[in-house]
Amino acid sequence: MKQTTFLDKLSQTILSNSAIELANCLIVLPNKRAKVFLLESLKNQLETTSFAPTIISIEDFIQEISGLRTIDSIELLFEFYEAYLSVTEKAKQQTFEEFATWAKTAIQDFNEIDRYLLDPNHVFSYLKDIEALKRWNLEPSNTTKLIDTHLEFWAKLPLYYESFYNHLFKKGIGYQGLLYREAVKNLIPFTATITNQIYFAGFNALNQAEEKIFKHLANENKAKIYWDIDEIFLNDSYHDAGLFIRKFKKEWKPFVNQDFEWVVNHFSEEKNIEIIGTPKSIGQAKIVGTIIEKIQSENPNLEKTAVVLGDENLLLPVLYGLPESVDALNITMGYPSKNNPAQLLISKLFKLYTNAKQRNEKSYTFYYKEVLDILNHPLVEPYCKVEEVVKVINNNNFTFFSNQKLFSLYEEKYPNSESKLFQLLFTRWDDSISDILTNLHSILLTIKSYLSNDDAEEKVTKAFVYSVFKTINKLTNYHETYNQIESLPSLQAIYKQIIDLAEVSFEGEPLSGLQVMGVLESRVLDFENVIITSVNEGKFPAGKSQNSFIPYDVKKELGLPTYKEKDAIYCYHFYHLLLRAKNVWLLYNTDNEGIDAGEKSRFITQLEIEKQPKHNITSTIYNAVLPEKAYEPITIPKTDKILTRLHEIATDKGFSPSSLTNYIRNPLQFYMQRILRINEADEVEENIAVNTLGTIIHNALEELYTPYLNQYLALHHIETMETKIDEVILKHFKEIYKEGEITKGKNLLAFEVAKRNVFNFLQLEKKDIEEGQAIKVVLLEASLSCEIEVKSLPFPIKIAGKVDRIEERNGAIRIIDYKTGKVLGNSLKINDFTDLTTDIKNEKIIQLLCYALMFENHELKQNREVSAGIISFKNMKNGFLPFGLGKGKDTELAISNQILEDFKAELETLIVEIFNPEIPFKEKI
Length: 925
Known about the structure:
There is one protein chain. The protein is α/β, with parallel strands linked by helices. It is built from 33 helices and 27 strands. Strands 14-11-15-10-16-17-9-18 form an eight-stranded mixed beta sheet. Strands 20-21-22-24-25 form a five-stranded mixed beta sheet, with helices on both faces. Strand 1 (about 25-30), helix 2 and strand 2 (about 55) form a beta-alpha-beta unit. It is elongated.
């Protein structure tokens, strides 16, 4: 049997009254969205063609009675500022940014006072007295300037209200409350002009002005009122869903010449209610997609299905989570602009240009992160081809650069192409506010030109762009009309204030496909399948948000709505969604901590406790599927292609000592770097990385020592090197770190550290020469290699690498490896070769012995004794730290043929493992 909706019932009632022509009916509904659904319902029940009735929202109806026009919250703020300036002496006038911080709250309070027809002077004097009492009603002699200013503000509120009210009234515009107050004043003359039959349908909570209007028109037989309440809520004096309608039923009887209609009995009917808890919001978005897939498998038509978002921020995750099979979709809701991608782009542009001006107004210096943030933004990146520019910024460590430099990089990489969007985004913002707003206007229009009307995703993006476009237009109009914005920081502050008031409005084709809506948009509508998300305290109901100057007890005293009434409104919406639904899914976040967390809503608990006999309620908790093991190490089997690549490395470039130690550390890392040749992506090094600093010191020492190769070092050589430290370090910094900033901050410290390390090294050298040691540097940054035969492999294995320094010292050869980190002497000593190539702590020993092995057959060896060791720049006082085999005094520091043979045997074991097709590359964790 087809379920009769509230709008169907309303249509039947209106059409059954043959005394009144349909075209002479005026139907007033709580929101605009229901109009299309009501027209559809009337159309389905009409047997002949007829002119449609007038169907309007309550806001439009009030506008008609008052003869005034409502304006949006941003325009209101600007109008209020104009009124404020007209009644405030120049010396005490606040800037718009300061004014906006309290004006938004004041407008909300003015609105409430007027909607509830309160005497504003009474309310404001109440507030002023409360503030004075908070200060113990101090005598004038005991107050401070701050207290005086504070109390003066409260004393002036009636003046602000009056001037604002009159200012708007003269212009024929107003905020909602002002229109309500004026509508009540015009009620009697308006009643005399009514020729239509008025129907008020589907209302719940009414303010004082609405009550007055409804009662008056009903009493004059000009209007009929149709409620939509279930007897369970109406008859239970504690149920918040019936809080307001119970009151109206009780108090309105003498004023309304009509039976109380309609009390229905749908809530107790059979319903399947599934309560699903899942951690985090994103989990809910995924579950919504799964539920819709399930509904579609039973009935592909989704017109009777609604997704109601308790938290509007979930809109985008839900849209991305919908299955591909959803071909028709209607979104009707307001989306908070703080998460609007177009708004985020404009905010990033403000940040870029405000900071650029503060850094250096003349050269207009950009910071690379802010530039990359814009270039990688989803509204810019697909339409502004700049991959090469981003690459150059990353590779050359551009940290700060001028906008001219950015344009020259673009021209260099894309010589014959001109990107309008790139030009608009990075053209310098001067002091002209009009030019800045025109530029933002052009950016949004250019982005819009790239978006298609055929793609559903791009339609949503267009709605985002249009929302910000309207806000920028309003800012432009305000600037042209009032000329109050004088600087970029001021424009940015105003933009921040008004963007909070701007919402992205989505409007689609209401009668086709899946309906996605906010809670308020669901009023009057009925669906068979209802999915409600974010049914958590603080979201549904919204909870105690006290954004008002009027304290709770004063609101209670004056009859203004408090959070208690707001909770009751949410309660009605919640239960109305369930009223005629057959299948209901209630999703909530199980996390009690975090930004969007909160305990399960009281509405779910109430449903469970007051369970109706025919309700089939099930509760499920969905958790992410956790594997038995937190992480399974990656294993790569050695295929023929991998073995071919290993053969190529072994016989061509060779295995370097660091690649062998890399294998010991983590075979997967070896596989990535040597087999697949994958290196880390280049990113801007804002602060010099440790390995970059090491490279700079290595290169500087190579340049300083090269002129003295193959000659015994003398003190005057070292002294000459000392004079060149600054120049050589700076040169290598610029070569390696390219455009990176080294004149301040951490990088300046790193620069000084590099100079100090080289200086300390030269002091060590000086001391050794003074002690009479004969030092001759024979090789610097030398490329060495050797081949070793491995019995089980049919080809020799090449070991190749670069040695930092080889010197002759007192007739013996010393192989030196520089380390910028801290190395202790004990870490280079071993008792024997057991487990040498299985423990990563031996990596430095393996490197040193590889160097010794490679040098073994070098022409410069000439049967001399060889030792190998490390000079650690963070352990300079201990000087040269040699490799040693054995314990205590018996430690052997010279690397004999026997040591090399034993090491070679260990190396062979490692190489055999690398080439063994049975042993995969297994990640070490």
